[in-house]
Every structure is written in C-alpha cells, then in structure tokens.
Amino acid sequence: MIRSHVLICGGTGCTSSGSKAIREKLADELKAKGLDEEIKIVQTGCFGLCALGPVMIVYPEGTFYSRVTVDDIPEIVEEHLLKGRVVERLVYNDTGSKAEELKDVATSLNDTGFYKKQKRVALRNCGVINPENIDEYIAMDGYFALGKVLKEMTPDDVIKCITDSGLRGRGGGGFPTGRKWAFAKASVGDKKYVVCNADEGDPGAFMDRSVLEGDPHAVLEAMAIAGYAIGADEGWIYVRAEYPIAVKRLEIAIEQAHEYGLLGNNIFGTDFNFDIHIRLGAGAFVCGEETALMTSIEGNRGEPRPRPPFPAVKGLFAKPTVENNVETFANIPQIILKGADWFASMGTEKSKGTKVFALGGKIKHTGLVEIPMGTTLREIIEDIGGGIPNGKKFKAAQTGGPSGGCIPASLIDTPVDYDNLISIGCMMGSGGLIVMDEDTCMVDMAKFFLEFTVDESCGKCTPCRVGTRRLLEILNKIIDGNGTLEDIDRLESLCYYIKANSLCGLGQTAPNPVLATLKFFRDEYIAHVVDKKCPAGVCKNLLTYTIDKEKCIGCGKCAKNCPADTIQRTDYIAPGHKLASFAIDPSKCVKCGACMAGCKFGAISKQ
Amino acid sequence: MKSLEELLAIKAQMQEKVAMRKSSGDIRIVVGMATCGIAAGARPVLNAFVEGVNDNGLGASVTVTQTGCIGICQFEPVVEVYEKDKEKVTYVKMTAEKAKEVLEKHIKGGKPVTEYTIGASNI
C-alpha cells in the first residue's frame, strides 16, 4: 500500500541539473530500505521554480525540497521517508514563517511567495501528474471535456462556449480563439485540419515546452475538441526538434490515447474520428509564423505566404485549418468543463483568463509562472520573481522576445494584458519576460534581438531581409561610437517602413525592440551618439578605464593583468603612498576590464 | 473508450491514488516514526491507517503522514489526530488493531477512543 508519493521534476530545467540521476538513486535507496512498496516515485513536468532545481515534493506532507543532489538522497530516505523527520536544510522556505512554525505545519507549496499569487490553469497538471501516464491525467478530469462535447454539445455550442470565455491566442497575436474556430467551421471543405503550433522560438521562452512536457494529454484533448468544433478529423503538432523530452512525451501520450480509444475512430462510441501526427521543426524561427509553419508541414521550405487567403479558408494542404498555440489549447478542456463564465471571471475586461510567463534575466527566481491577466509587472517581478538580485535597480522588462518591446521602470505598475501592452508600444508575445537591471544597455539589448532577427529572417521579402540588416548596421555604428543624431532619425523611419511592408509577422514586428527602446530610452541613444558614452557601461568602444592616481598604491597588479601592455608607472606618488601610481594609455586599451577586476583598492573605474 | 462511464471508472480507480497530492485533508493523522516509534512498532500502525483510509475511500478528507520523535518515547507508538477547529487527540501505545478501531470510531464516527489516549488512567 502506497503511503507517500515523491514527485520529482522531469522538466528540461531539472533534467539538465541532474534530476534523472536523483530519481535512479532514490529508487535504489528505497529498495535497499524496503520502502519501495510504500513509497511511489512520480516523474512530473515542470514545477516552474527552475532556478532552484532539481526540485522534489514529498506528499502527503507537501514538503518542497529544492536544489537536491544525489548525495542528499540517502538522508532524505533515512530521515524523512523512513523516520518522518523533514530534512530542513533542503526545504524551500519563502513563506515568511519562522523555522519553528514550519516544523509543525506541513509546509504548503502554495504559501510560498513564488506560488501564492499564481493561478494555474494551463499549468494546472504540470508538476502534479506523471505526464507519461494517461490514468493520472484522467484522474484529474482528463478527457472529460472531450466526452462532454461529443455527448452533450453541438459544434456550435463548443464554439459559443470558447467565444464567450474570451480566450485569445496565447502565441502572441491575441486573436480571439472562438472567432478563429467559427471561421474555420464556416469554411466549406471535404477535409479540415487542426494544427498545434509548438514551434516556440523566442529566446528565453519555454512555456509551451513545459506544457508539452508536463501535461501533453491536455493538448491532445483540446485538439480533438477543436476538430469536433470545426469538422476536422486530423491534427498536426509542429514541435521543435530541440525539445526531445516534449516530443517523447507527446509520442507516448498519442500512443496511450489510441490504446484507450480517445484518439482514432468512433471516439466515445460516436461517429467522430480524430488522429494526431507530429512534425518536427528544424529550428527556423520563421516557422512559428502560422503560414510558414503550414508550408513546412507540407514538406516545403518554411516560408510565409501572403494572407488572404487566411488559414481558416485555405490552410494546411490548401484545406481549411485552425492553428492554435500550445498554451491556448491547454486552456480549452478547463473552459469546457468549468464553463465560459468561470474563465471570463479571471483577467481584465478584454483579456480573460491567465497567462504563463517564462521569467528570465536579472531576477531571483527564474522559472515559469502563471498569473491572472491584469497582474501588474511589479507583482510579477517583486512578489513572484523575488526581485532583482545583488540589490540592483530594476530598469526594464522585455516582453515578447524579438517581436516585443520593453516596459520601463516608470510603467512597472501597468497591469499586464494584451491591450495595455500594445498601448505602451509593447506586445504580450508568447510570454517570455526578460528582466533587466541598471547594468543593461538598452541599445545593446536592441542590437541583441536584431542580430537574432537578421539571422532568422527567411529572406523571402525585401523589407525584412534587407531592412533588418540595415537596422543592425546603424545600431552597430551607434554602439561603436560613430553614430550621429541623423542616424537615430533614419533608424526610426526605417523601423516604420519595415513594419508596414513586411510579408509576415516576423518582419512586421522585428523593429519593435528598437522602437520601444527609442521610445523609453532615447536619452541612452543620444548619450551614445552625442556624448559618445554608454551610460550602463556595456558598449566597449565607448568605455574608458581610468586609474585614480590618488587611490593607486602603485602595486602594479593591473599592469600585470593587462593583456595589451597599456598600463605604465607614472612618476606621481600620491600623498600617503610609497610607490608611484600607474596610468592607462587609452589609445592602446582593449577595454577588457582585467585591470579593474584585479584592483583591490578600487582605484580603477570605467565610464 | 466507448462511453463516459468507462472514463469515470478509470477516474474513480485513479483518484484515490492521486488524492494524496492535493494535500487538503480536514483530518490529519500523524504517526510518530522516529527510531523509538519504529522500534515500538509504529510501522504496522502507519500501514493500518494508510490502508484503512484507502479502503474506506477517505483519501480526499484524511491525510496520513508521519513525524519524528515528539519526546514521549515510553508511550510509542504515538499517533496524533488533528482535526480542524478541534483539540488535538494523542493516542499512545498504539497497535494495528487499535488503529482500526480509532479509524472506525474516531475518524469515521467522530468520537475519540478515550481509553487509548494519553490522558486515560490505565496507560
């Protein structure tokens, strides 16, 4: 008889920090202690607190262990699982309660700062069930939504329910999902398709990956529901080949669903048939764009095509197609089961429900969070994310990856939803949220994303292919200290040109990082071109390292560290010091910073 | 899968197994499982509670868990029952048989078995 479950995260983050070895060690230890009949090990999807991985939860107590190593396992087994004494040194404690209180009370994960403000809908099963076991998904009401629509609802009922819920596409654009389905249903065709976009390409985004790894059946169930609603009998999941764990779990899930007859012919004894195939993407960012994605599934080079015709009319294999993102799908079964009103009760007026964000950058708790729409950026960063490490100041948050913009510190109280972000020139995007502190140069940040889009532009249309490259060249000129004020104006007008004339979303949004930084941090651009200074001290060509001759004790460590031999002793001896101070020759300096890093007396500064 | 009933059957069968992870539980049965407890025979007691809760389908409202030594080693195996808004009940010198009785009378019936509690005169 099982008396305890040990959940170990098997998401990508924890797997790469060694959770597989931990799982194996735990199995060995339990066996050695004769506990393997009493204690069950469950591999789950992502818990979200990736920064503290590998993570482990012991139920029924709900004890949350973080940063577990293989060497900790014997202690956990001996002390906790055998004798019932929680291994306190490994317990993640961010509840604000004192250690003594914790001893008595079963520490609930939901009380920690990281989880308290979250509301998990799309991620509800991630870190709770074993994603490779369909029975566990069924225990969590899995496939009941599919049963409900097939037995009790007409396709129109389903579309109405999704429309009323106010669900909007989670892939970035925010198009109302119900309307998309209604268009596809209205299209006439002998064959229709449902496509799941799992080509998550934004740097720093891993929401879809975690859903697929933690709850793959939810996506399959939702795709079947969409198929029923629009009259399709075939679905395709386009998933990146770089997500091996997600692909493996999807394959297992599809097989299990077939075994149970939840995919295939005559599902639930009705005449509804539905089957799902997987197509691996080869890593081109543009394939996340819906028409390019469908072209790629068809076996052609992943390039976008002009719209109209829209996919709802002429999509995959020229048939009417609904394409939704993974997270969008993950919400669907819950909406069907709990009703449109329940979903619409969360969020803001025009953005309903919750949104998953991948927190990254200069923040304490990097990881995955799901929050109701309308939560302010301040709550996300300070309460959930634990704030900025090393006491630095928050400067801006970048949302939407290379297609998005940034939210400056002055707008930190903005409630995050689709329309608010667009009104400040930003974009929800798929949900990557990169936090930046005062040490980040915004011009450099814009350059980083442009380098990405220049690389990833598919080359089909000129504004994007040539335009983004010219943008990058102007940015490099500014960063190298050769820019002029006219360059800033040219940069801006070129941005608008590219936005207006590109064929697909990639080009239309590629200038956003530049436009957003120009809007909120124009002074930094001006500092780069007029004062030839980088205020954050990032852009190398604009830096000068100087030695304060009054503070220099003349030890010569900096001269030894310098790889370019630019530091020489002067003949000035500061009052109170015995040796003559050193000085840097700025014409030879390569700005590596080795001198500053080595100086124990704080005599070297950069500007 | 031909009907919702089949799906419900799987769910019912699985639900007990995952109920533990919801860690709700209005009632918490805590078994002392330190060296002293184990030596005195706490393991069969713990197993009796776990099995009893499962057999009676109480998984959603009752949590069975373990704890370390609470300092009254001479009274082990010790079992404490926490119930919302009620005084904690401490059972001492438990056995698997007594556990079944506690489960029946106290957990299901709502009446603590006073003769096994720490305050009882015959202990």
Q: Describe it for me?
A:
The complex is a heterodimer of chains A (607) and B (123). Chain A is α/β, with parallel strands linked by helices and 607 residues long. Chain A has five domains: 113 residues, Glutaredoxin; 205 residues, Rossmann fold; 84 residues, Ubiquitin-like (UB roll); 90 residues, de novo design (two linked rop proteins) (Up-down Bundle); 63 residues, 2-Layer Sandwich (Alpha-Beta Plaits). In chain A, 39% of the residues lie in helices and 14% in strands. Chain A contains 25 helices and 17 strands. In chain A, the strands form five sheets. Chain A has a five-stranded mixed beta sheet with strand order 10-9-13-11-12. A four-stranded mixed beta sheet of chain A has the order 2-1-3-4, with helices on one face. A four-stranded parallel beta sheet of chain A has the order 7-6-5-8, with helices on both faces. In chain A, strand 9 and strand 10 form a beta hairpin. Chain A is globular and about 95 Å long. Chain A starts with a strand and ends with a strand. In chain A, 52% of the residues are buried. About 2% of the residues of chain A have low confidence. In chain B, a hairpin with a 5-residue loop joins strand 3 and strand 4. Chain B has a single domain, classed as Glutaredoxin (3-Layer(aba) Sandwich), CATH 3.40.30.10. Chain B has 123 residues and is of the alpha+beta class. In chain B, helix 3 packs across helix 4. The mean pLDDT of chain B is 83. Chain B has a four-stranded mixed beta sheet with strand order 2-1-3-4, covered by helices on one side. The interface between A and B is large, with 37 and 35 residues.
